[in-house]
Every structure is written in C-alpha cells, then in structure tokens.
Amino acid sequence: MIYDSLFFSEGVKNKLAIYKTLSSLEPDIYRVQEIIHHDKFSYHQTIRILKEISEDLLKLDFPQGDFISPGGKIKISKQLPNIIFYRSSLLSHSIAFQYILSIVNNGQEDSLSFCKRFGISKSNLVRKIQPLSEFVKAFEMKFTYNPINITGDEYNVRLFLTRVVWIGLRGLSNPFTKIPTRVPIVAENFAILNSNYQKENQQEIIWGATIHSLRYDQGYIFETTDKFKEFSDNIVNIKMLDDSLAKYFKTKEDWEKEKTGMLFYSILKHTRGERRQTFNKVFDIQIISNNHPIKKLSNNLFTFLEKSQLLPNEIETRNEILDEITYEAFLIYCIPKMILFPDNFVYRLPKESKNIEIVEDLLNIFYERHKSLLSLHFNGSQRNLFLTRYLKLYLTSIWPAYQRNIPFTVGISMENSNHHRSCLMQELQTLRHVVIENFSVKRQEKYDLVIYSSSNFPEKYPDIKGHFWSLSSGEDDLVELLTKILRLSSIKKKNYICKT
User: Fold this and answer.
1) Does 225 share its domain with 106?
2) Same domain, 109 and 196
3) In terms of C-beta density within 10 A (0-12 exposed, 13-18 middle, 19 or more buried), how is residue 493 classed?
C-alpha cells in the first residue's frame, strides 16, 4: 500500500503484513508455519515479529495480545482488533505522521521544538519524512521546517492533509488538539449536504471540513479558480449552505471561497448519481445548452473513442459514459493542473496491460490533435493530468461497459459486517459489467467470483473461485480486488470469443 510506504519503516510494514493474516484468523490454535505460508517470512523472522505484535497489543490493553503459546504455537482465543485499529496505533510512533498532525493542528511549530518533543535530531527528522517529501513533490508541494508546514496550491495541501489523516485513523481517534468553537459548527453544517453518504464517509467529510477551517484559522485562504466561479450559481450544494455561517469568517468573500473549497473535496468522493445531482444544472444549462468548450472537448473525445471502437452499443450506456467524460472535462477545465486526487494514495494504472498501452497511445493522439482547444480554454491542461483521468475512466467505466454483453457475476457472502459490505458494494458498482448478487448455494455455478468474509468458506465450497474480504481489508486490498475482477473479466471474454 502506497500509504504505508510513506509513514512506516520496513520493520513496521512487516508487522502489518503478518498482522493482516493474524486479524483474519478465527479463534483456534495455529502453527507458525501457517503464518509463514501466508506472508513468506522465515520461521525466526515470523517468531520475532509475532512477539513484537504481541507486545504492542498488550501495551494497548488487549488481553488477547498474549497469543504465543509454549512450543511456538499461536493461540487465538478471541478475534484480534482489525488492522485499521492496529495501523492507527502504530502511527502514534510514526515521526512522519506526527509531523503531519503538527501541520494540521499548529502550522507554526519550529523543528527544534518538534525534535525535542520526540527525542530526535533534525537530520533524523529529515530522513524520516523523506518518502513523504518525494511523494508531495509530484504535486508541487514542499515541506518547511521553520515553521513546520507545507507549501503549495492550497487545494492540494488541504486534500493531502485530509486524506493522510483519514486513511491513518478512520475516525478511531481524534487527531485535532485545539478546535475553535466555530469549526465543528461549520463542518457539521457542511456534512448535512452529504447526508446520503455512509456514516464513515460522512465522518470523513466532517474531518475534511475541519481541516479546511483550521487552515483558514492559520491564515491560508482557498482561492477559487475563475473558471469554477462561472458555474457556482448553478451548483445546488453551494446554494444549500446556510449563509448565516458567514459570520464565522472574517469577510463574506472568505466564506464564499471556503465553502467552495470544502465542496471541491467532497465532490471527488461522489458516486455517479451524486455527481449528477450536484451538477445537473451546470451540465444541462451552462455546458450542454450553451455549447461550452467543455461540451466541445467531451463530444470530440466521445466521437474519437467511438471511431476507435472503444464504446459499447447500448444508447443508454453511451449517454452515461458521455456524462462521465463531461464530468472529467469539467474537472480539468476548473483545475487545469495535476492535482492530488483521493486515489493517488492507493491507485496505480496497470501499465503492463496491452489494452491500457493501446488506449494511452490513442489518448496521446487525441491530446495532440486538440492542443489548441486545451491551450485556449483549459489553460494548457497538463498531458499527465489528461491521460491519468481518462485512463482511469476507461478502466473503471468505459471498458467494463464495452464488456457488458458478457456480464461478470459476483456473489457476496459477507454476513458478519454490514458496514464493510456497504463500502465494498459502493466500489463494485463503479464497474458497469459486474452483476452483484447475495451468495446462494443453488446458484454457485453461476458465479465468476465470490467475495466472502468467513475463513472456512474455501473448505465448504472448494470448487468456487473466491476472494477473501475481512474487517482488516483496506484500500490496497480494494485495488487488488478490482484488478482481479478486470483480469478475470478479460479471460472470460477471450474464452467466450473462442467458443463463438
């Protein structure tokens, strides 16, 4: 997982790798070799890491942390806390993560004071945050030491801070030390606009709005791009915000900028339906009816993909895809540079795929042909941004829609976790060709893949192709699952073509 590489040493990442296996085990007695089989460590490495994990859990007052029995066996008497909890506890010892919390809560602490708090030298601090420093460079951000802070486009800064804090803690502990009275009022009022989100996502929106407000208190203003301002009158969510909240800001102009900044963060987490609900007036009135440059770019790209035989035949699906192409063009128009999207922490394009290489070549051709349009109306949008957004759109929406005539059926057997089930379902629904059903023994031969949460599922149904999803599964597991579905879909299509 990209996130773990930014905040943890190799030793801590090894602990997380083994803990992921441990936390998925049902109460029972296991041989160390079973753990080795999962995580591919030597026997002695595994024993050492297991002892470290046991000590960590006991320090956290979890009696089930004493799981190493005489003779080297692992006795799980009660299922261990999920990996999200364990990761959040390890972050309390991560210098890089504490550096981020200093920025969020203070923004004025000097490196001498910070190093004294954690008993490290300045050179050690620089070394500890080096992976993080390299990561933010790609988005034109940079860390400072006196005071400890981060510079760069304020939109990128806020999105980066919010995602870093949220992925690490997931609402399990409060990262904020001193919160002015007005901050929770503004944050919770903003979250009302996202009432159709799952509870976890609502909490993330509140944390995002809180970080926006704290940055404002530190003297940083979110500057709305002129290109976004031209749409603000028709964005429903902005109009719904209570303008009485303006009294919590220095000026009404500041309030207008800040509420737009909070909206920018939330829309990147919208589902298709939520995007359409938020931007229906923008698309129908300003973009489509007025022959806006966004419409021109979107229609040209749609036609180009159609001529390249990359679009499905169904009219309804094609219209939905045009909507999504338009939405991406809208983002590129409003923010014409490489910004930090939420998926940058976990998502990598599978460059080894021949199909992706072909589509990337085609998008490069399109980009070259429309350089004048992009330069005139999209502020010379970066090629990297254009390719990244539309390659991902191809992977998650256009390609699966093209495969729709060969549906991929997924059975869900996750009776032990309604929360994780709902989050997983939301992600699976982004793949158009996937048909999702509750697992039924009678239909077991119909499933191309079954996602299950019980570790004894493979024993009960040895002939079913399955994928284990536990309470400890996170973003990296999600990427692995989606990649697996795309790979199996390709195999199914090839087999179908050979048969016909």
Assistant:
1) yes
2) yes
3) middle
pTM here is 0.76
Kindly give, in sequence order, each residue whose CB lies less than 8 Å from that of residue 265, ignoring residues fewer than 6 positions away: 158, 159, 162, 205, 208, 209, 212
Q: Which two tokens stand for residue 130?
A: 């080096």
Closest C-alpha to 398, from 481, 289, 474, 325: 325
- How far is 73 from 12, CA to CA, in rounded Å? 22
Q: Is the pLDDT of residue 57 over 80?
A: yes
Residues in the chain: 500
Instruction: Tell me the per-residue pLDDT of 312-323, one tens digit each, with 9 for 90 and over.
Output: 777 777 888 888
Q: Which of 57, 150, 63 is nearest to 104 (CA)?
A: 150
Collapse the DSSP code of 148 into the 3-class scheme (helix H, G, I; strand E, B; otherwise coil) and give the result.
strand
- CB neighbours (10 Å) of residue 84? 19
226 plus 205 within the same structural domain? yes
Q: What angle do CA 488, 493, 494 make, to 5 degrees?
A: 100
Residue 369 lies in a domain: yes
pLDDT digits (tens, 9 = 90+) for 243-281: 777 888 889 888 888 887 777 766 666 666 666 667 777
Residues 33 and 166 in one domain: no
Give the span between the Cα atoms of 29 and 16, in whole angstroms. 21
- Count of C-beta atoms within a 10 Å radius of residue 157: 22
Virtual CA dihedral for 110, 111, 113, 119, nearest 10 degrees?
170
